[in-house]
Request: fold
Amino acid sequence: MVRTRKVTIKDAAFHVMEQAYLKASGGGTLPALARQIMYAARPIVQEMTGKFLDDQYFTQGLLPDYIEEHGVDWNVVFDARGHFHEPHTEQGVPLGTIEVRRFLSAVENFKIEARDYKINQQQYPTIGPSNRYGAIVFIEKEGFMPLFEAAELSKLYDIAIMSTKGMSVTASRELVDTLCGSHKIPLIVFHDFDKSGFSIVGTLKRDTRRYTFGRNIEVIDAGLRLADVTGLQSETSGIDNKSKPKARVNLRDNGATPEEIEFLLNRRVELNAFTSDELVAWIKGKLDHYGIKKVIPNDVILADAYQRASECKVIQKAIEEKLAETRKTMTAATVPGDLRATVEKRLKANPTRSWDEVVAWIVNS
Reply:
């Protein structure tokens, strides 16, 4: 009797992967979310295997594996699983594929025009690390950002803060690879004292299946480490005896000391074990220890910033005086009787514009 081999979920997914991508991406003409590809593949995979296709297994495992093994250059977008925040500028970037690539493109192409600026702008124009921040802090917990904002941590130290839900995603590695590597600033990592925490540091220090670093970056493991957890509440590691040999190797490969390994095979400590004031004080101590300081640019930039601020002051005063003078003699504008029809016509000709853009165009044309 010949026994027929059962089709595995991986076999079925790989069989249908290209078909699913083409369906989700409009024949390869548009970006496709990883979950869109999963939705296109799932009915076929489940029919072929008789098993349920888990979306995380597909989007975080099978799809990246297929892309790597087959060397396809697909425009796949992975969901944002964290955020990146610059100090002072209020610039924030979701850690998704498209958002990060747009931000990095903006950083790369950013140029300061001689006197192209907003009159009330007090900040010197920046995007990215140049003249703005001297380090990037990575923390594996998303929920700490309100605490950091209340403590004004990023502004006190001129640091950008990046947080993710657990393991660093490919987009976050692409971000730090470019920013830290190109601008020679360190990446300082804060993580739980457990196997996952050390794995997070490991994925930021070396190439993985999903991401190959293009530059050498300085990664500082700021803890939690064994010396940091004295007095903090611990809990069981969740590592069973059968898994301990493999966990031991993983911890060693990701930088844990022999003493730390023995602790972590049985116990773990989360950053959440700190109270809010303790956590902020601990992080400040680490930043001080690693020499993270306020950013002050070179004399050329300082002089240019002074000139820009001086011009802004003079121009703002002139504008206010001119506005006051003009408003005394200015009469109300005559609104065209065909304004609505003109707006509708212009929007029909160019539907990507907004109605108020069209109104401004009519006034200025």
Summary: The mean pLDDT is 91. Residues 331-365 form one domain. The chain has 14 helices and ten strands.
